[in-house]
Amino acid sequence: MNGLAEREAARAQALARLTEAVPYNRHLAVRFDRLGDELTARLPFRDDLVGNPLLPALHGGVIGAFLEITALMQLAWDQALAAMDAGGDTAAEIAAGRFPPMPKTVDITVDYLRPGRPRESFARARVQKAGRRVAHLHVEAWQEERLRPIAMLRGNFLMQD
């Protein structure tokens, strides 16, 4: 393998390990697709995620958790990616599956815009501002059309040392 292919394989493996390291990601079966430094979260539909069987619609708590997971994973991935690119001991730790502590949620606001239907959902986080200690993010979740989000999150997160 050439250097670029090795680097991409290492990044894919690190993202898979980071995703699996979070128990709630495993519980919801959330997966992440990566394009450069941008992550797209995927929440597969399951019947047990339905909160209102009359519509049917995804439970609001599942949607809120999915948005928060997406924000936390984007921040954690940004840290991991920077460490991998810098090399050294921290990069070796990440290659071994040991990651820096996850960011902590300070506060979030979730806006529910329309019901989440019984189908796969997607989300993407955008870091609005990242300081040394606190980051502010905006996350949108959608299903078939990204321009028709089902929910949005705005939140502040404490970055761990």
From TrEMBL:
Listed Pfam families: 4HBT (PF03061)
Q: Which Gene3D superfamilies match?
A: Hotdog Thioesterase
Where does the source fall among the domains of life?
A: Bacteria
| Boundaries of every Thioesterase domain copy | 58-147
Q: Protein name, please? A: PaaI family thioesterase
